[in-house]
Records
---
Amino acid sequence: MAKCEVCGKGVAFGIKVSHSHRRSNRMWKPNIKRVRAIVNGEHKKVYVCTRCLRSGKVERNYGSAAPVAAEAIVAAE
Ligand SMILES: [Zn+2]
């Protein structure tokens, strides 16, 4: 389930080693966030890892409500 829709990064497996060197299997999950992004010109909820968010691999339209509101005010006048 935990998978980035941009880079395909998923869970990784390894071994936890305690101080007494007892070994047990463990799993690392990627830091996945559900964000509202622009995909093919429309807003969609996508699951993206924080690394892709940081490097700007997803297009997010911040403050898109403000220009729409301004147009509505102009149209009302
Ligand atoms: Zn990613």
Note: The chain has two helices and four strands.
---
Amino acid sequence: MKQPVTFLKGGQFIRFAMGLWVLLLLASPVHADLTGPAIVEQHCAACHASGVANAPRIGVTDDWAELLAMRDLETIVDNAYDGLGRMPARGFCTACDRNDIAQAVDAMLPEELAGPDL
Ligand code: HEC
């Protein structure tokens, strides 16, 4: 008597699905492991690449020189962390801690203005 050919049946399918789920979990990025440039790409570039609503543009000396003339880098990082005007707190990166935000700001600064490590 022939067995019907099935792809995966019963418990096999469950195990297959669980395995897939674990693989997906392992493959998804963990926020704490993101470096500054990766945070910028994922959470900040949407506004800071083109300068939406006057956001200082990534790597644009004029934009950052203007800010640094008004306040120091620590305060600028605080503002990014706490939010300021139309800058949302942490750029909506809820998993980012202050150090992550400092790394992201550092990655947005033009090279000639890059400050000491925060
Ligand atoms: C929804 C758009 C948006 C996103 C997303 C966003 N920003 Fe901003 N950001 C702004 C705007 C608009 C300003 C200008 C705020 C102002 O001066 O009123 C700003 C200002 C800033 C400033 C200058 C603060 C100061 O002291 O003037 C820093 C630093 C900054 N953002 C960092 C970040 C970082 C880091 C991220 C990602 C984690 C991020 N932003 C994500 C819109 C955004």
Note: DSSP finds five helices and no strands in the chain.
---
Amino acid sequence: MIITNSLGSNYSSADLTLAIKLLFQPWKWLKGKETSLLEQTLLAKFVKFRPAEAGRNNDVSIRLFLKGRQAIYEALKILKIGQGDEVIVQAFTCVAVVQPILDLGAIPIYVDVGPKNLNPSLAQIKKSVSPKTKALILQHTLGYLNRENDQIVNWCRNHKIIVIQDLAHALGAEARWLDDYDGYDDNNLLHHPNTLNTLNHPICPDAIILSFSQDKVIDGVSGGALISSLKSHRQSFQSINQLINWSKINITKSLFYPLLTSTIRQTYNIGLGKIIHFVGKELDLLPSSLDAPDKLTSLPNALAALILNQLSKLEKIIVHRRNIALIYDHVIYKRLKLIIALDIKNGSNLRYPVWVGNRDELEKKLTKHGFYLMDHWYDAPVSPKWVDNSRVKYRLGSCRNAENLSLHILNLPTHINIDQNKAKILAELINKYSKRTNYIIKYHKGLAFLQ
Ligand SMILES: Cc1ncc(COP(=O)(O)O)c(C=O)c1O
């Protein structure tokens, strides 16, 4: 079996069995009890909190979509963001985050990430704010929480900028930000994660989006959610109850996806997997994570069932990911690291990032050992790299740290199909084959960037 970052690596045998069962139960595909159960589970698991805050109601609403990007679109639409409004988003992101902003006629304003950092600082965000700024989409890349989250949320609140927390990568991360950190007992953490409530934090965002699409922490092949406590959201949720249904052919493809990808990974080494992969792509049987319908689409009940099944194992999944990331942290040379142990302990560890000088060459060498890690989050400031920068209003050279990072980042897998032994072997191979880069940190207008 080969190890990849994507290609259905999140599915366990229980997920495969469920997908097969669902294939024979088409009456459950569109509507069913799993959808409302998923809504209730998400609300109960992640939103049980909330001390009363002035001007805010403690009621929280949830709406499920086919894609996380549709949840972003919906959040922006309900906030009445439109023509000419500015929405701050970090460079080193996916086009799926930016597209909803463009679809509404608003303007994405890109803020650079810190030097050798996955996320932006408050100082960088402040420089991107203008009188037209309406909202900030705060992404926690690869599941590593922005270290200045609280300060950013507070500052935005004081400046009437709505914060949409993009937890597409960070489901299951802990809301224990740096300020709260009082020293963890490692053993306790590894075996008994106590607070996995991403939203259980005194500083609540205005809206939260989640993604359950391919290769996310919880992977139901496709899925997204918008959770909001804003009064306007709740009212709009009630009035717009007409989402389109996804076609049965697409649902069939999605239910086949876990089976097909698992077969590909298992038979890749003997050549069969390569053929199935090729044929699957040619016949359009392997949906790309970038494909999405134009119209807002409801989450099919069959995918809600897949998501629920994984969600019930979230704590186990998170502990596994943390343990694998801690092995990388322990073995990998310091000069290659992008994150620290505290990020690992706070984060969901969707993928463990390293910074290497010879990514292409290294990847080729790793394939000889059964590690296929060519899928980088992200390979461009607005990923994937074939995206036309002018279409997404990104000016080349404007976010140099993000551009640098996208050339050097390599993602290491933490999913359930890599065990501790393989992770150690991979970490040692990275140490052996990777080359360092020479760079210096420069300062321009008070902000740091790599050169
Ligand atoms: C940070 C981030 N947010 C949101 C999304 C959108 O998620 P979805 O693919 O479910 O639309 C993505 C896509 O990968 C993402 O990387």
Note: The pocket of pyridoxal-5'-phosphate is lined by residues 67-69, 93-94, 96-97, 139, 166, 168-169, 211, 213, 224, 289 (CB under 6 Å).
---
Amino acid sequence: MSPSQSTSYASGQQAPKWPADKPLALQINHFSPVREGHPPPGTVPDEIVAEGEERPLLFHSVQLPVSRLTLKNAIVVSPMCQYSVVDGYPSPYHLAHLGSFALHGAGTIMVEASGVTSAGRITPQDLGIYKDDHIPAHTSLVSALKSFTEGLTVGVQLAHAGRKASTWSPFHRGERKVKEYVTDEEGGWTKEVVAPSALAWGKGWITPRALSTAEVKEVQKQFVDAAARAFESGYDFVELHAAHGYLLHSFLSPLSNQRTDEYGGSFENRSRLLIDTAKEIRAKFPERSLWVRVSATDYAEHVHAEGKQSWDIEQTKQLHKVLSQVGVDVLDVSGGGLVEFQKISPRPAYQLPYAHELSKNKLASPLLGTVGIMEGDEYPGQVAEKALEDGDASLVFFARGLLANPAWPEFAGANLLGVRPAGNPQYHRVHPVKPGETKGKKAPSTAQNHN
Ligand SMILES: Cc1cc2nc3c(=O)[nH]c(=O)nc-3n(C[C@H](O)[C@H](O)[C@H](O)COP(=O)(O)O)c2cc1C
């Protein structure tokens, strides 16, 4: 598919001249920092902290315990699939989408789930990092983002969709509301959908093929090769996606893993693929930063009464201790996605109790990240700030809240501090915070936005 085939232009509009035979990959070879001499967006310089006030924890820099990588604040853009890709390549769309978070002060951006193999993509429109040819487009993306704002850290989530592969993205399935997968004729890969065991995710979904023991080892290699591509592209860290029912999570949970080889049965066996993959990345890239996202629970404890086992917080606590030995920088604590009968009730900070539970392990590494409606409601920043104050987490991940408002970090700073944190100097004409504009616990001041 060439871009001109997939894009329509209003009458009278010029269609851009695309190179007809090139995929829609981002290609930028000129990077120049766009500003100098200003405090980085998303930071709170001493001069704007009023006497007697303290800088909110959300705006403290965070040093990661293993790699010593410094994040300029505790705000992380959670990975978000955009299903806007041809053949796995990052496109100009990603620069616009992620660029707005960079300009508005998020400290760290995690690029969406990127397939470590083409059959491991969730949908045909997923981002990929499964061939060397993807590297220049990823390099363009990372370098351009970093040229926008100082101190920005950028990582990428490495993913294999497992039994949730070859499915429709929410906005490509059109009328196909009840048809759960993309057929081979429609561009899917139904015969290549794999999992620990031949168990479909739900009714009407593809029944995956169980991986052989040798193939599981091949998956490990695919993750390690993808990490190599990511580091070559300039990413500061990689995150292994072991949450939301995708392949690594489906190995962890006894609900989806019924294997009898070295990858099934005991906790040690079910976690072997994730742990060995993390260990190999750690060994091959000792200086680089490695993060892991887990579902702390399948949200399926109700099946225990039927004599079945699921993945739960107790096993996650055990996993946390093992990952600490491996040398993981951040454990990003999410939940669910493994089974259609999960019982979950999203509300502000709904997954924070799992990070809280893990904080009782009292480990210096990995640092804990929490995610799930952490933007709060009326008072931006307070829910997240409290999680940090209570020591439940060291980093806070935001997805939908930032989609709704990429400038959320500025609102959070204004609310917690009474003055906006350092912003994008090109936007210096944005109004200062006015008395009464913030509703938080701190009295607002009329101080200017510091640029
Ligand atoms: C559009 C969208 C795409 C997402 N894609 C991913 C993804 O690529 N990888 C992932 O681990 N989670 C993904 N998620 C989940 C988010 O990262 C996050 O964990 C979840 O939305 C809860 O956080 P929130 O309440 O701040 O949105 C996605 C969420 C949204 C809304």
Note: The chain has one domain: 45-427.
